[in-house]
Design goal:
about 240 residues; alpha+beta; Umud Fragment, subunit A; 2 domains; 2 helices; about 30% helix
Length: about 240
């Protein structure tokens, strides 16, 4: 057996220490790689989550925008009461065209609309004036928080009278196929003022309308009844009966 000298022992100890250092460096390097991979994975998940959240925000915002845009054009309406029988029934649901009576007076578009309501200097509408025979939804003049639905009988400048249960428009008897029975009242001749409308319910004996509380201002108009959608048996577009003055 040969013994190792002190110099040899120091060389072996140094080599052993160096090997341990390299091993420790390798282990630490593996930990660094593992830490870096974990951080990268977390960052990737955060980016994906952020992208999903941004897409969700965009979808919700677009949905709200479409909803608001649609509500500015159409609105649903529930018929309450029997004042529009036999045309409309209690608890019937309708779609109202709010764009039909879009106003342009007082806006930059006013100069592009060449006409005023029936030449009377009344409000200007983008598409067309409210017409006789149209079924409209409006805010009740005496209680604006309530919405009413009636039929336009007289427009600005018209003379309207109810005599012996029949309606006379500009001194001419009008035919009304949408009514079931005549009125049980008389209403004296009235001239419809500019920017106002004379309305009646189709159920003449049972309707609170212009013969009771007066005219409907143009500012109170909400829209034109367009479509019945519930119950299914009543589904379909609503016909607006026009009649000559």
């Amino acid at each position: 057996m040969f013994g190792l000298g002190s110099g040899s022992k120091r060389i072996i100890q140094l080599a052993t220490a160096q090997g341990r250092g390299r091993l420790e460096t390798i282990v630490r390097g593996q930990g660094l790689v593992e830490d870096t991979t974990e951080i990268s994975a977390r960052r990737g998940w955060a980016i994906k989550a952020g992208g999903f959240l941004w897409e969700l925000i965009q979808t919700v915002a677009l949905t709200l925008l479409i909803f608001v845009a649609m509500r500015s054009v159409v609105q649903n309406f529930k018929v309450e009461g029997t004042s529009m029988e036999p045309t409309l029934h209690h608890n019937e649901f309708l779609i109202i065209n709010k764009a039909a009576y879009t106003r342009v007076d007082g806006t930059p578009f006013e100069s592009f609309v060449a006409y005023a309501s029936n030449g009377t200097g009344g409000p200007k509408f983008l598409f067309a004036d409210p017409a006789r025979g149209e079924i409209i939804v409006f805010r009740y003049p005496q209680q604006p928080e309530k919405d009413f639905i009636k039929r336009i009988i007289g427009v600005p400048g018209d003379k309207v009278e109810v005599r012996a249960g029949r309606v006379y428009l500009n001194d001419k008897l009008i035919e009304e196929p949408y009514t079931r029975e005549g009125a049980t009242y008389d209403s004296p001749p009235r001239i419809v003022p500019p920017g106002q409308y004379f309305v009646l319910g189709d159920n003449r004996p049972n309707s609170s309308d212009s013969h009771v509380w007066g005219f409907v201002p143009a500012d109170n108009l909400i829209g034109k009844a367009w479509l019945a959608y519930w119950p299914p048996s009543q589904w379909g577009p609503l016909s607006n009966v026009a009649f000559a003055q």
